[in-house]
Amino acid sequence: MKLNVILLVLGVFAIQSVLCASKAEISALTDLYQATNGASWKNNQNWLQGDPCQNKWFGVSCYLGSVTEINLNANKLVGTLPQSIGNFPKVVEYVLSENKLSGTIPSSLFSSPASYFFLTSNQLSGSIARTGTENKNVFDFEFSNNALSGSIDFLLDYPYLSLVNLSNNTFSGTIPNGITQITSLDLSFNRLSGPLPASFSQNNFDELYLQQNQLSGPLPTLQSGNLNGQDIDLSGNQFEGTIPSSYGNLIKITTLALHDNKISGTIPQSLSKITNLQLLTLENNQLNGTLPTFLQTRPRTTNFHAENNFFSCPLPAWCSPAPTGNGACAPCVDPSSLPLCCSYSNNGCQSVAQYRCAPASCPAQPGFSLCGSRPVNSCSLCAAPALADNPLNSIPVV
Description:
The structure is a single chain. Strands 1-2-4-6-8-10-12-14-16-18-20-22 form a twelve-stranded mixed sheet, with no helix packed on it. An eleven-stranded parallel sheet has the order 3-5-7-9-11-13-15-17-19-21-23, with no helix packed on it. The protein has helices at 2-18, 23-35, 108-111, 293-297, 385-389; strands spanning 60-63, 66-71, 78-80, 93-95, 100-103, 116-118, 123-126, 140-142, 147-150, 163-165, 170-173, 184-186, 191-195, 207-209, 214-218, 231-233, 238-241, 255-257, 262-265, 279-281, 286-289, 303-305, 310-311, 340-345, 352-356, 369-373. The longest helix is centred in the N-terminal third of the chain and has 17 residues, at 2-18. It is α/β, with parallel strands linked by helices.
């Protein structure tokens, strides 16, 4: 009988030992507590008392004696993350958002086995290092509202990334080519520049936020695999060219924001296929022509803004200036009043035809090739400048 009791006690002790955190995990948690002023946390219940798994330290989740989650969201952490923050061999998730964490993110964090990182709304700075020891099985990066900088090429190191939010930082450089697996990408309010990578055409974005950067070149070609009906926001950049007619295949999106760019051409009628569209913003571009009919029949079902473009007069009554309409597409341009700003040739610039058009919007003309364009109020000069500038030899087309 006594032997059975002894064996039972030893068994219980062995189980408890197995369910206790390792010394390395306890040391790493202690480092975190001390480095972030744990004594002043909003909640530090049971911290530094016994075993973190057995005593249930606040914000620490365990499974079979291993730390699997550290969730100290909005808990008044102040200070820097210790290098030992990655010393948890079974951790799945770090939730450290809405604190006052500062300094750089230790490289050890990305070498941990965690798949989910939430560090939004802190004061973190510096670049995200590429060490070659990163855990490849990361699904979610949430680093918005910090002061992080440098390149975002580190995204290439995580082939299973699906959700990325790096908004409201100071990341710079170009968006890397090859991040084709991401379905929700928020890079808004950074300092990214250059054209978009060719690989964007392979992404099935549910959400894409690139607003308020310095991106340029043509608008991206996007796939029609938007399953959740979310948002596309490319506003506040330097995109140019026309709106791809293929955007009409994004039938599930609810927001398409393209305002404050250098987009020209007309609004494609194909956008009428986006029946769930609730917000369409095109203001402050160089769009021209007439408004497509679907906007005239759906002005109240779509929140539409297209002010400060070059739409032809007369405008539809509903978007004309007040008191007739809401002013959503005003002002308009009388094509006959536009200066001659585009030069075309059908014989190597020996015979030049100049067309009236909106600034920086020289349309293709059958049988003619574009010689060039210059700012409004100045006609283009081709190989025969005298001929090009002579209104008697021009053929204005309205």
